[in-house]
Amino acid sequence: MKFDISKTVLWRRVRKHPDYMKTARENPIVTKAYERLKSGESLKSISLDLDIPMSTLHRHKVRLSQQGQLPDFVTCKRRDSTSKDDLKLKLAKAVQACVQNGMSQNHAANVYGISKSTLWRHLQKRVAEAEASMEEDEIKEVILS
């Protein structure tokens, strides 16, 4: 060590320096994916052809959409920006409306702005938990009698 500094510390300082230029090592497959996204191809076809995960392609598509590089006919659905706490609250209200007020799953999903499948899964989970607790109670009664 000529300058009494470890390689790791030196490398970190070099990368933080404003004059440091990162070398562009763009993967040719990713470049192809970008070109095909810009042309408006579906994520699924690109994913199957180039063997790139759909989530990665979606991230690239959102990035291109934000930069305004996608054609007008390409839609880019963004994930819901509501927080998890808001979603849990909406879900709890929808489940309560179905169970206690007799509201249909479809109507509750529309009123509270959640997907029908999510509501259905939580209602099924609730039914399964209720059945499991009933079975436990029956077993306890058999043991105690």
TrEMBL record:
Subcellular location: Nucleus
Annotated GO CC locations: nucleus
GO terms assigned for molecular function: DNA binding
Signal peptide: none
Source superkingdom: Eukaryota
Domain HTH psq-type: 90-127
Pfam families assigned: HTH_psq
Name of the protein in question: HTH psq-type domain-containing protein
